[in-house]
Amino acid sequence: MVNTNLKDLFSLPNCVTLGNLFLGLLAIIFSRINPIFSFVMIFLAAVLDSADGYIARKLKMISSIGRELDSLADVISFGLAPIMLLFSHIGENILTILCGFVYLACGALRLARFNVYGSKEFFEGLPIPAAAILTSSSILYLPLHISPLLAVFIGLLMISPFLYPSPKVSEGRRPIFLSLLIGFLLFVLLLYLYLPISSVFLMVPLVFSISLVYAILSPLLFKLFQ
Predict the structure, then answer these.
(1) Domain-located, residue 186
(2) I need a labelling partner for 17 at 20 to 30 A (CA). Which of 33, 63, 145, 188 fits?
């Protein structure tokens, strides 16, 4: 019989993952009260999601418990939280519920597939933190009627066979850098052509631009630089 002590459960990487989970909870709570704050919580949760794996590798504390905990936290922070933000903006009807379920189901399937077949050299399908950032920023930035259908499209990207670059290896860093650069140029263009009053908070269109380019172009850039 395996006996897991509290020290294993509350290791430093796991505590960072629990921080991700807590931010996801805050994002859900504030989705109707303060959508911008909810978006920021999702973004910060993504930062912690990257940090927990980095810390685990550096401290040689990678564990099966940490991997499972990470997926459970991601379902909340990057699966459910963006959909609650969608509901807060548009309301619950048959279309938004179905679109929200498709996104959430694809996110859960993406995490399950990664746990079984994941690779450090690349990501198969759009990573769910990037999907959540793109979904939540699009909800705040784009016209409301676009968001539910875009959430479905993003969900399908998560379970797609497209290979996305990973910053863990050198081959992935160049396409990621180019995605960031092109995304920033798109942000500048959007500022010139289209900036709704509701998006005066510039982090929203900036994050939307970069995450959109990563979702659409980075698989092609990754393939070109392989």
Answers:
(1) yes
(2) 33
